[in-house]
Amino acid sequence: MSWTGDPTWLAEVLRGEGLRVVEFPGWRERGHGDFGDLWGIVCHHTGGSNTPPSEIAYGLPHLAGPLSQIHLSRDGTVTVIAVGVAWHAGVGSWPGLPEDNANFRTIGIEAANNGTEGWSQAQYAAYVGICAAICRRLGYGADRVIGHKEWAGPKQGKWDPGAMDMNAFRRDVQAQIEHKAPRKGPGKVFNDEMIRNRRGQDINAGDMIAYLDEHTGQTLDQLGGPGTCDGKPFPGWTQLGGRTVVDALAAVGAALGIDGFADPKAGK
Ligand SMILES: [Zn+2]
Fold first, then answer.
1. Separation of 170 CA from ligand 1 center, angstroms?
2. pLDDT higher than threshold 90 for residue 128
3. 70 alpha carbon – ligand 1 mean position (Å)
4. Angle between helices 121-138 and 166-177 (to 10 degrees)
5. Is the pLDDT of residue 98 over 90?
6. 156 within some domain
7. Are 146 and 41 in contact (CB under 8 A)?
8. What domain range includes position 93?
């Protein structure tokens, strides 16, 4: 385990995952001490559908905030609450974590949810995105993401996050860590970024990338033979005698006796 320190990069990394991020005032100074080695993430639900980020930052009468580093709202908005240690895990145990001492090794995520209402697509997708972004930044897999119920179930009877299968959740996180998220398709990559193409059309960056990918691949195949765009070393076309377009042109020129043309296959 290497020293990671406080995750001062949280807001930046979460934005980089495409999440809608709010920086709660003072988050860079908030915490019950500094992190040493970050092991991973503990996922929670707050117990209420509308728990505000301020409650996670300032805490409750019996428990001083911050109560976690991250708040996740029902609509998928991610609020970064604290950079330092937060009181979210309590007593518990899990392989790889020191018993009853997860707060100093894990980032806590408190999702506004009563635990039985289920997860909106926006909130679930953001939850996956938060965990994937943090794990990727730390160089970890999704096995470093656990639910509070997994950590503290036996000791505290915790059941959060409710209505969530942690194994399925980890599979989704792992897929996103590896960028295997469902294909977004043309135009869905950077929805808002508009670019004027050379024909004067305003199109978004996702459409532009999809267009470039398709047409560059087609052009490579046309020049070098089918599969060139997949990395095959210029296989050539059967109807050109196994030649690439360049070699076929050279052969035609050589057959016509044009000065300087040579069929590379003739000498073989
Ligand atoms: Zn919890």
1. 17
2. yes
3. 12
4. 60
5. yes
6. yes
7. yes
8. 10-177
Does a structural domain hold residue 41? yes
261 in any annotated domain: yes
| 17 lies in the same domain as 56 | yes
Q: Please tell me the distance between residue 137's alpha carbon and the centre of ligand 1 in angstroms.
A: 23
Give residue 59 CA to ligand 1 midpoint distance, Å.
13
Task: Look at residue 2 and tell me if it is in a domain.
Answer: no
Provide the pLDDT for residue 180: 60
* Residues 251, 165 within the same domain: no
Q: Are residues 212 and 262 in the same domain?
A: no
Measure 264 CA to ligand 1 centroid, in angstroms: 70
Angle between helices 245-255 and 205-224 (to 10 degrees): 40
If you measure from the C-alpha of residue 42 to the centroid of ligand 1, how many angstroms do you get, rounded to a whole number?
A: 8
26 CA to middle of ligand 1, Å? 23
Q: Work out the pLDDT band at 185, boundaries 50, 70, 90.
A: very low
Q: What would the pLDDT profile of 25-70 be if each residue is shown by its tens digit?
A: 999 999 999 998 999 999 999 999 999 999 999 999 999 999 999 9
- Does residue 102 sit in the same domain as residue 163? yes
Q: Which two tokens stand for residue 145?
A: 């993401």
Number of structural domains the chain divides into: 3
Cα 152 to ligand 1 centroid, rounded to whole Å? 8
For residue 192, the CA-to-ligand 1 centroid distance in Å is 36
**Are 103 and 208 part of one and the same domain?**
no
- 139 Cα: distance to centroid of ligand 1 (angstroms): 25
- 230 and 238 Cβ atoms separated by less than 8 Å: no
Q: How high does pLDDT run on average in the chain?
A: 91
Cα separation, 199 vs 191, in Å, equals 20
